Amino acid sequence: MSGEDGPVVRVVLHPRDLAGCEHRLYLDHAYPDLARSRPDTPEAQRRKAAAADHRAAVREMIRGLHSDQAPGTVVLIDPDATHAARAEQTLSACAAGAAWIWNATLPTDREAGRRGHAELLIRDGDGYLPVIVVNHRASYPAKNARRPTGTAGAKNGTDGTVPVADGDTNSGGAANGNESTNGNGAAQGNGGPKVTVTSPVWAWSPSADPTRNGRNQRRDLLRLAQLTAMLTELGLATSSDPARLRAGVIGLDADCIVVYEMASALTDYAEVFARRMAIAEQQVSTTPRRIGECRSCPWWERCGPELEQRRDVSLVVGANQSRILADAGITTIDQLAAHRGGPPDEWPGNARFDDAILTAIAWLQGIPLIRRLDTPVVRRADVEVDVDMESYGEHGAYMWGTLLTDTTDPTCEVRYRPFVTWQPLPTTDEGRSFGEFWTWLTAQRDAAHEAGKSFAAYCYSQQAENRWLLGSADRFAGAPGVPSRAEVEAFIGSAEWVDIYEAVGRNFICPNGKGLKRVAPVAGFTWRDADASGEASMDWYRDAVGLGGGVPDPTQRERLLEYNEDDVRATKVLREWITDGARAAVPHRDTLLAGRDA
Length: 598
Hints:
- The protein is α+β, with helices and mostly antiparallel strands.
- It contains 20 helices and 24 strands.
- The strands form seven sheets. Strands 3, 4, 5, 6, 8, 12, 13, 16 and 17 form a nine-stranded mixed beta sheet that branches. A five-stranded mixed beta sheet has the order 21-20-19-22-23, with helices on both faces. Strands 1-2 form a two-stranded antiparallel ribbon.
- It is globular.
């Protein structure tokens, strides 16, 4: 690219610039010095550290899998070298025909304005395909699926694997949002059934895999597309025909490579890249709009006040809903609050339009909750146990906190009891603490039944608890006190397992969100630690167990125990308030809607 006065230096886009907030990209390039000088948030630091640990584990796994092969089969690019040196090492490894290249860095394409690196380049035929390693799941088990004999890991693809025909692999273009599963997570090849394609991690041998569904992340697909485009430009891709180009993702479980066809992803990428480049070069202006990533964005201190000043409708509805409202001419909270009539044509069917209007009214009047029902309802029992689980990333659940209340006996002490391991995760001692928790919980349930009393256990947002209940039953099967998966499924599917988060959603509209720390203060609960949060607990846990070679800090253990106890007490206070105080304290939706005409 050149101009009258010589070459024009283009903005260079990294794959991370291709997804997420467009306005953040605009600001990053409009104020590059500010963007470079800002430190990572603690949350970002934790994510980066976890991702680095995962990549290191995958690297060592791959080295081990190929340790019996000829030297040079796996080439590791020096991570401490400069970018230019890493790119030179990568090109040399490609020229030498290395089969697997770890930490591959491609030369920056300054004319096109792009850069990128892949955790892996795998040789396939006369070229290379990119494989990235991500710290989230790239696939999940398909329900009621059975893998054909020999498909999972045939090193040579000769013992029953299903050959992959053109057009039968996962379609990158299927992902139109941040995440898409396109039915079962794959493409529909040649009019046939949808299929997910995977390869074992020790050899490039793609085959149809009916045991998995792909979990397509658009961010991953755009990164793969940029890498594929760069390899093509360098003459290193496996084919010049886009329909034959493939790429892969190794996810959190690191038990396979999920395979994608790149043709449709490359088409999507070209459109995205052109727009993002125009934004970065300040040729297209953007305006702020609140979306999910605003919570951790360093530009929020600039965007937030601007949105509030113009009373932007995105402050009270989701990102997609705010776009639909804007297209219908509703751009401010005041306009939404005053709206009469039905929703815009594109309004999603699973979202109540009246809730959006009421949330706008609540924002204008400073109302924290709105009652849906005349009398709020939540399941209560004679014996109630509040449960809160604490986990450390994907490494395990180190604590199960409980609070026991006998509502039939006011003289009975309300007792907090945690079941915890302070051995650094992952550890088999996690199974011991889980087994003790389950034994205690079922003993309380059985005792209540024997006494002729009703029983219920409560959590706040059961998705996390259910995941670790089931996962712990699977991982520690056979350990003392650990139930079978069937026992756990029977319990979480029963009426005795109650999600207070779901009860809040049934009873209230929550303008400020449904998180426990948003709703429980309305019921009068406060946490003892002003810094208490799930994010902060990750740092506390690292100090509590001495991760990274540190000395375990007993004060942080006490802090985690106090935080966990406050969480279960908050659930109890909120539940009791729903029953006893919410009707009088929270305005009803009909009252607010009618009040617009007063």
